[in-house]
Amino acid sequence: MPTAVIRLHPEDAVVIARSTLLPGAPVAPGVTAAERIPAGHKVAVRALAEGEAIQRYGQIIGFATQPIAPGAHVHVHNCGMGDFDKDYAYSQDARPTPMANEGLTFSGIRRPDGRVATRNYIGILTSVNCSAHVAGLVADVFKRNPFTGHDPLAAYPNVDGVVALTHKTGCGMTDGEPLRLLRRTLAGYARHVNFSHVVVLGLGCEVNQIAGLLEEQRLAGRIRNMDIQSMGGTRKTVEAAVAFVHEVLAESNEVRREPVPVSELTVALQCGGSDGYSGVSANPALGAASDLLVRHGGTVILSETPETYGAEHLLTRRAVSQEVGEKLVGLMRWWEEYTAREGAEMNANPSPGNKAGGLTTILEKSLGAMAKAGTTNLVDVVRYAEPVTARGFVFMDTPGYDPVAATGQVAGGANLVCFTTGRGSVFGCKPSPSIKLATNTPMFQRMEDDMDINCGTILDGDETVQECGQRIFETMIRTASGERTKSESFDAGGAEFAPWVIGATM
């Protein structure tokens, strides 16, 4: 029978309520809850002096802003941020990763260039927001209706869909890093292995000229492109783009799935709507699955730099070199300067939903979030939307906002997404399928139409972290082989495309 609280480390001064605790409920030998403790929240198991460091996972998550008595609720009213020294100890814990002997496979789509897809879409990208509506009109012609069953692509069963990925920028921007970042993101999607064909639609007078995109990103010959002004307006552009899709549908449909090594998987690790259980159940279970994938030669991408802040010293210890570790530390310094310049602070990251779920500071959130990456070496650190070429655990610089972060990871080459959530997220990420992992059983049961895996079994005492991780790993393989996720059943994943917008809007 599971205990009423969860102790994560013997040195922790707090434990986590497995379910709502009423006053008088036992939380430690000789300690009872002094007040109502919501599910997923922290309760002190010993007295804490004002200014004393508070630990969870055996790591500092904040400092007492007032004296805290045993049995008291520990949250934003009495726990805050503070400075403390971090020992980066570059590469101190890096060890050779033991590789699996068995050659596991999944049923993937081998492209002519040798890369392996998990899905087979035709993509419509836009150079600028001004062509977004036209792109949507084109995609609507081929849109399946998951509720009525109407399917314009019924004659093309091997085509997963025609998707328009639109955004809110592309003009009113400077010809510098903001434009380079947008073009890098669009190019990552234009080259994405899960697209058989791509057309890029522009307006014609935008800063992000399609000709410049093609030249800078070396996309000439890879994609079809057209701009509305040159084509003669909305109707003619829609007709031409629809004709392009009809032209390539038969060729796109010719793909066949075949056994390919699991090492061909590149998985984006995401969390959104996190709660106090995220770092206890779903995130460490996904970490166990990440370890399994890396040991089979695959790749996992951790991102959300602001949500790794305060825990980066645990990743630098696993870096394969000091150079790789210093790249990560450099990102943290950039984010400190960036938030200060914008009049914000790193601890502003936990959302109201995160806090309602039991997370108090960014330090606490980061320690739980990084668990998604498992225990293997950090082999590389890349910028937003850069191609991920290393095998193993890679870190990508992104904001913490889920759609922006996942967009960068998919642009970098992720052909599968695993997304943990405690509050409940309905996120999709075309052209890559997104697997939803619930941190707790009540939310899984409440949102079962949207959740693929219940990791609340760990909290319920029905599974270990490793057993749940094995189940996640097996779901990765089935999903990569074509099994539909819950978000795909609702055709989610087009509207969530969100390139990172930096710099001034002019």
Brief rundown of the structure:
With 506 residues, this protein is α/β, with parallel strands linked by helices. It contains 15 helices and 23 strands.
Account of the protein in words:
The protein has 506 residues and is an alpha/beta fold. The chain has three domains: 5-80, Archaeosine Trna-guanine Transglycosylase, Chain: A, domain 4 (Roll), CATH 2.30.130.110; 107-258, Rossmann fold; 261-489. The protein is 29% helix and 19% strand. The chain contains 15 helices and 23 strands. It has helices spanning 132-141, 177-190, 210-216, 228-231, 234-253, 282-295, 312-316, 322-341, 352-356, 362-369, 402-411, 441-446, 456-460, 465-480, 486-489, and strands spanning 5-6, 14-17, 26-28, 31-32, 42-44, 53-56, 59-64, 73-74, 79-80, 105-110, 116-117, 121-126, 161-165, 195-202, 224-227, 257-261, 266-271, 299-302, 378-382, 392-396, 416-421, 434-438, 453-454. The strands form six sheets. A seven-stranded parallel sheet has the order 19-20-18-17-21-22-23, with helices on both faces. Strands 1-2-5-8 form a four-stranded antiparallel sheet, with no helix packed on it. Helix 6 (282-295) links the parallel strand 17 and strand 18 (299-302). Helix 1 (132-141) crosses helix 5 (234-253) and helix 6 crosses helix 14 (465-480). The longest helix has 20 residues, at 234-253. The protein starts with a strand and ends in a 17-residue tail after the last helix. The mean pLDDT is 94.
